[in-house]
Design brief:
This protein is α/β, with parallel strands linked by helices. Helices cover 45% and strands 15% of the residues. It is built from five helices and five strands, in the order βαβαβαβαβα. The protein has a five-stranded parallel beta sheet with strand order 3-2-1-4-5, sandwiched between helices. β2, α2 and β3 form a beta-alpha-beta unit. The longest helix has 17 residues.
């Protein structure tokens, strides 16, 4: 297990499908973490709230993420894009919110060797799919992504 340099300011990434949701539901967490010495990186598609987060003193990284897309190539590219962001930034821990970041981000974090958690407050439109096969695949992806999410806490 790698040791975290105690002199280094740790970076926590928050990943969601909109910066609106991060700003409206996680701003108090961001402020708490910043007040306690953490660097914060928000990873989400750009929207009208991206600048608000930047003005809070967090780093921001845009991702292309289609919340309702089901094209396998585009979905694999989303995982790849998250993996690249995770490996190019010095991230110590990742918190994923919302369905696609939970699944794709958890897989990308696992591939990058970064500890993460997935916050699931509901399954959104996942269970509203009328196609049993699509519902099965989605739930299977959740199971795969959530396997061994947090391997270590070094802080």
């Amino acid at each position: 297990m790698a040791r975290i340099n105690s002199n280094k300011k740790l970076t926590i990434a928050l990943v969601a499908n909109t910066t609106w949701s991060i700003y409206n539901f996680r701003l108090n967490l961001i402020r708490f973490l910043k007040d306690n010495g953490f660097n914060i990186l928000v990873i989400a598609p750009k929207d009208n709230f991206s600048a608000n987060l930047i003005s809070e003193g967090v780093s921001y990284q845009h991702i292309n993420l289609d919340n309702y897309g089901i094209n396998p190539i585009s979905e694999i590219m989303s995982i790849r894009q998250l993996y690249k962001i995770y490996t190019k930034n010095d991230i110590d821990f990742i918190i994923h919110y919302t369905i696609k970041p939970n699944i794709y981000g958890s897989l990308a974090a696992k591939f990058a060797g970064i500890s993460s958690i997935a916050v699931t407050t509901g399954l959104g439109h996942l269970l509203s799919f009328s196609n049993v096969f699509t519902r099965f695949i989605s739930l299977s992806m959740y199971k795969l992504a959530f396997r061994n999410l947090v391997r270590r806490f070094g802080f």
